[in-house]
Amino acid sequence: MAAPSSRATPSPSAAIQPPLAEPGRLALLNALERKVLWLSSWMIHNANHLRPSRDGLKVGGHQASSASVVTLMTALYLDVLRPADRIAVKPHASPVYHAIQYLLGRQSLDKLKAFRALGGAQSYPSRTKDGEDVDFSTGSVGLGVAVTSFAALVQDYVRLKGLTPETLPLGRMVAIVGDAELDEGNVFEAMLEGWKHDVRNLWWVIDYNRQSLDAVVSDRLFGRIDALFNTMGWRVVTLKYGKRLEAAFARPDGGALREWIDACPNSLYSALVFKGGEGWRKHLEGDLGHLPGIRAFLDAHDDQSLNAVMTNLAGHDMEAVLEAFHAIDDDLPTCFIAYTIKGFGLPFAGHKDNHAGLMNEEQMATFRRAMAVPEGDEWERFAGMPVPIEAVERFLAAVPFAAQRGRRLAASPVAVPDALPLPQGARMSTQEGFGRILNDLAGGDSELARRIVTCSPDVTVSTNLGGWVNRRGVFDRRERADVFRDEKVISAQRWQMSPQGQHIELGIAEHNLFLLLAALGLSAPLFGARLLPIGTLYDPFINRGLDALNYACYQDARFMVVATPSGITLAPEGGAHQSIGTPLIGLAQDGLASFEPGFVDELAVLMRWSFAHLQAEDGGSVYLRLSTRPVAQPRRAMTAELAADIVAGGYWLKPPQAGAELAIAYAGAVAPEALAAFEMLLEDIPGAGLLAITSADRLHAGWLEGLRGGEESDVARLLAPLGQDAALVTLIDGHPATLSWLGAVARHRVYPLGVEHFGQSGDLPDLYRVYRLDADAVLDAAARACLER
Ligand SMILES: Cc1ncc(C[n+]2csc(CCOP(=O)(O)OP(=O)(O)O)c2C)c(N)n1
Ligand SMILES: [Mg+2]
Fold it and tell me: Which residues of 39-48 are buried (b: 16+ CB within 10 A; e: fewer)?
């Protein structure tokens, strides 16, 4: 089997190296990293100790995790990074990020003072709340790491199609990673997918402090992780010892010293870091004291300087860090494993319980004096720096990363037609309708179609994307033949792979799907290229990727999730594939407008609206829950009014008479049962109505808005014709709570039908009977409602 070659090509961004040799540059960077350490620690201290507490809650912030990554982040932001690079910062290094932006004049003092308070700098870097230099939000560990790999893929996708602004250089996608983030499996899923797509220009900088939240990590772990990166075609650069330790190793018997540290278990090393010089001396004397070179080494250092040498890991050595970063001049994915100490430079350095540790007032005062910051000047950008202020100012003004304002890009919207083509057919499923609408778009030559990019985790064909892919092709960085076609093996699928392809095929990992959608959905701000991403998957497996979906929405990425098929309507497939709770996810997920259309003409309206909503300033993402059940399609004209109601979330399929005592409200694939029950009911309750709910989510949101004093909600308007003591029978192939709230809108009695328990194999008549979704169940509920009047 042929594997893609992974020959690296030179990286354009590597061509612009800063003048490293410039005299004093290293001294300036050293002074700045101390200042970053100070400001990040002080910011947290201020939030916890100096800002009055009104609620008795601990404010928090991570002084130790921040200290660990100060050198690496200072080197990156103040020297290595370029405006076109896109960065995900380890979540709990947020104070370091903000301190650096403050030094660069890109973050305000007020925001630092309000760190973790309303309107202040966020606890974890946030794209939507911290402003334009946060490229990716982080918070749920592992996700920020993985999303950079998908961003690298998206960068290639848009560049190879010529969709980015001509002036935008190629950027590196950089993740600053906590070592325990690598315990999250999603990182490895993403690596494998990245390898398949031959991603480029990707840097993961691992803050290898060998500590997580609870503990010191296993000694044996890193050999494995190193090997994993190598296997996936990454270059691994290990930054282990700093210049001072290397110099000590070069002295007589230095080899023994190196072996001793190499063999030192993580937990002992951490404990000795915490104890300081005395501890080092005791252990080194005990283990190596018989060697004259080591004796001389110990004699030459007092406790303080011995501790400084023994803790001189490369991740805290600016020179070593810069050398490593600047040595990379190609686009091969590169992992830097930088040895660091959690809490480096702070009193709890190396202590295994330091994750939530905060310096007390006294420790902070000692630290302030050590940093030469005069009392009262704590927020002063340059106070106490051992270098001329003008030199620092000149340096900061020339930092390449900050050379450009407006790193966040924009892309003009793509026009959306007034209506999408409506597939014709008397009976059709919403899933089939979806495939045919896209297939139709694929056959045309619209700008809209050029900007659509589809993706799916190995369910492209079974979610009806086949037609689209046949016409638009699969994306690959290189032209690849369709072997089956060339060999004249007959197949309905033509999977031509090329840089022009508009479908990204993923392996089965729903989590990756949502991370890819996050990256695709940020292509406008990240790369100045407008895309309209559509991801398809099986509805129950939304749960599998849920944190990544939430993550994508949290950072306001824009995409369409088409989850199909759904519910127990997927009858013979059985309980493992039938979704119950996803409509509630749709209801609750912020940034995601959720719809469950019953008919294909509704779907066409919703897809059209979605393409606009994805691009609107105040828009968002969209979730369409579809079905494979063929149902008779209504023959009707799509009036502007009906279309508006479908988008708002519901309309009367059969309007009630004024004062009606009963209505059936249904969503999605159970439309035929609702209709059948309605027809039967009419004999006894001639005024009854049948309400089609296309979006419980939007109706619910509007209702709450109305309660808060907004204008009358759509749902209140819809339910207004019903009598005061009317009953509502609600019906959905999903959890009944999705619709049962409708009873509260105008204080109607509600009889909710839906699925509460795991499904199983069966056919529709059996399953709808057992799970009470059939017309009989609706009639029973209606009868009960009449009795209980
Ligand atoms: C998905 C998820 N689970 C748990 C947490 C809570 N948490 C925050 S930081 C952390 C440990 C991180 O350790 P590491 O990545 O090594 O960073 P360090 O603090 O050592 O710099 C944990 C468990 C989280 N943020 N996200
Ligand atoms: Mg760690």
Answer: bbbbbbbbbb
Q: Whose CA is nearest to atom 17 of ligand 1?
A: 178
Round to whole Å and give the CA distance between 340 and 239. 9
Burial state string for 290-324 with b = 16 or more CB within 10 A and e = fewer than 16: ebebbbebbeebeeeebbbbbbbbbbbbbebbbeb
The letter for the amino acid at 742 is L
76 C-alpha to center of ligand 1: Å? 22
The answer to whether 354 and 64 have CB atoms below 8 angstroms apart is yes
Tens of pLDDT, residue by residue over 429-451, are: 999 999 999 999 999 999 999 99
> What atom in ligand 1 is closest to the CA of residue 68?
21
Whether ligand 1 lies within 6 angstroms of the CB of 138 is answered as no
Give yes or no for residue 577 CB within 6 A of ligand 1.
no
CB 594 within 8 A of CB 695: yes
The model's pLDDT over 554-583, given as tens digits with 9 standing for 90+, comes to 999 999 999 989 999 999 999 999 999 999
> Long-range contacts for 747-754 (Cβ within 8 Å, ≥24 apart)?
748/719, 748/722, 749/725, 749/785, 749/788, 751/727, 751/781, 751/782, 751/784, 751/785, 753/729, 753/777, 753/778, 753/781, 754/730
| Confidence (pLDDT) at 55 | 94
141: Cβ below 6 Å to ligand 1?
yes
Pairing of strands 503-506, 560-563: unpaired
Q: Residue written as tokens 């098929």?
A: 565
Tell me, what's the pLDDT at 10? 65
What is the percentage of the chain residues whose pLDDT exceeds 70?
A: 97
Q: Quick check: CB of 760 below 6 Å from ligand 1?
A: no
Is residue 446 in contact with ligand 1, taking CB distance under 6 Å? no
Mutate to test the pocket of ligand 1, among 63, 217, 340, 355 (most ligand atoms within 8 A of CB): 355
pLDDT digits (tens, 9 = 90+) for 232-268: 999 999 999 999 999 999 999 999 999 999 999 999 9
Count of other CB atoms within 10 angstroms of residue 560: 25
Cα 596 to the center of its chain, rounded Å: 25
Q: How does pLDDT run across 46-62, given as a tens digit for each residue?
A: 999 999 999 999 999 99
Contact by Cβ (8 Å): 351, 270: yes
Ligand nearest to the CA of 93: 1
203, 80 contact by CB (below 8 A): no
Query: Which ligand minimizes its atom distance to the CA of 344?
Result: 1
Question: Average pLDDT of 590-617?
Answer: 98
Alpha helices in 209-329 (DSSP H): 221-231, 243-249, 254-263, 266-275, 277-288, 292-299, 303-310, 318-326
Helices 510-520 and 185-196: angle between axes, nearest 10 degrees: 70
- Mutating to test ligand 1, I would choose from 92, 183, 352 the residue with most ligand atoms within 8 A of its C-beta, which is 92
Q: Report pLDDT for 21.
A: 54
Residue of 44, 62, 65, 140 to mutate, ligand 1, most atoms within 8 A of C-beta: 65
Q: Which of the two residues, 481 and 348, has the higher pLDDT score?
A: 348
Residue nearest to atom 1 of ligand 1 (CA): 140
pLDDT computed for residue 5 by the predictor? 45
Per the CB < 8 A criterion, the answer to whether 557 and 135 are in contact is: no
- Model confidence pLDDT, tens digit, residues 702-725: 999 999 998 899 999 999 999 999
Question: Does the Cβ of 213 fall within 6 Å of ligand 1?
Answer: yes
Interatomic CA distance for residues 284 and 309, integer angstroms? 13
Atom of ligand 1 nearest to the CA of 182: 15
User: Could you tell me the pLDDT band of residue 407, with boundaries at 50, 70 and 90?
Assistant: very high
